[in-house]
Amino acid sequence: MVYAYSEENVMPTMELDEVDQQILEALHENSRISYTDLAKKIGLSRIAVQQRISTLIEEGVIERFTVVINPAKVGIQVSAFFNVDIEPRFLDEVAEKLSKEPPVTSLYHMSGPSTLHMHGVFRNMHEMENFLLQTLYAMPGIVRVDSQLLLRRYKSRMGMKL
């Protein structure tokens, strides 16, 4: 999903009460928790919890339920961050193409010295080099690419906590 923050494109917000916040906190800890167990945890009926979660999904508060994979366990040895400077007229085209690339895990249009901030994961340095040479550098409007390799991950979280 693309988030465009501007006064013209303000997304309506949903008022979250304390129960909604408890549900979100519990789902953030374990999104596979059953409605029954979640209902017991927060003191509601299973049907009430199910309805509230459905509303949170319909209102876009919950975008999706997902799995977080440990990269090292599946052979991903290189994690890198990239600052990519792009000619303004190519920004949307490049962002669209990069967002479809499997190694790209996150992509942001940033203020400051770089146009795009990107994170990617690769099996090894050779795979990262091929991505740079064959994919990124081949895109129109790329002016400069700065990359930093991740040495150690101290914290990584999908989504946000309230």
Automatic annotation (TrEMBL):
<keyword id="KW-0238">DNA-binding</keyword>
<dbReference type="InterPro" id="IPR011991">
    <property type="entry name" value="ArsR-like_HTH"/>
</dbReference>
<dbReference type="Pfam" id="PF13412">
    <property type="entry name" value="HTH_24"/>
</dbReference>
<protein>
    <submittedName>
        <fullName>Lrp/AsnC family transcriptional regulator</fullName>
    </submittedName>
</protein>
<feature type="domain" description="HTH asnC-type">
    <location>
        <begin position="16"/>
        <end position="77"/>
    </location>
</feature>
<dbReference type="Pfam" id="PF01037">
    <property type="entry name" value="AsnC_trans_reg"/>
</dbReference>
<dbReference type="InterPro" id="IPR019887">
    <property type="entry name" value="Tscrpt_reg_AsnC/Lrp_C"/>
</dbReference>
<dbReference type="InterPro" id="IPR000485">
    <property type="entry name" value="AsnC-type_HTH_dom"/>
</dbReference>
<dbReference type="InterPro" id="IPR036388">
    <property type="entry name" value="WH-like_DNA-bd_sf"/>
</dbReference>
<keyword id="KW-0804">Transcription</keyword>
<dbReference type="GO" id="GO:0005829">
    <property type="term" value="C:cytosol"/>
</dbReference>
<keyword id="KW-0805">Transcription regulation</keyword>
<dbReference type="InterPro" id="IPR011008">
    <property type="entry name" value="Dimeric_a/b-barrel"/>
</dbReference>
<dbReference type="GO" id="GO:0043200">
    <property type="term" value="P:response to amino acid"/>
</dbReference>
<dbReference type="InterPro" id="IPR019888">
    <property type="entry name" value="Tscrpt_reg_AsnC-like"/>
</dbReference>
<dbReference type="GO" id="GO:0043565">
    <property type="term" value="F:sequence-specific DNA binding"/>
</dbReference>
<dbReference type="InterPro" id="IPR036390">
    <property type="entry name" value="WH_DNA-bd_sf"/>
</dbReference>
<dbReference type="InterPro" id="IPR019885">
    <property type="entry name" value="Tscrpt_reg_HTH_AsnC-type_CS"/>
</dbReference>
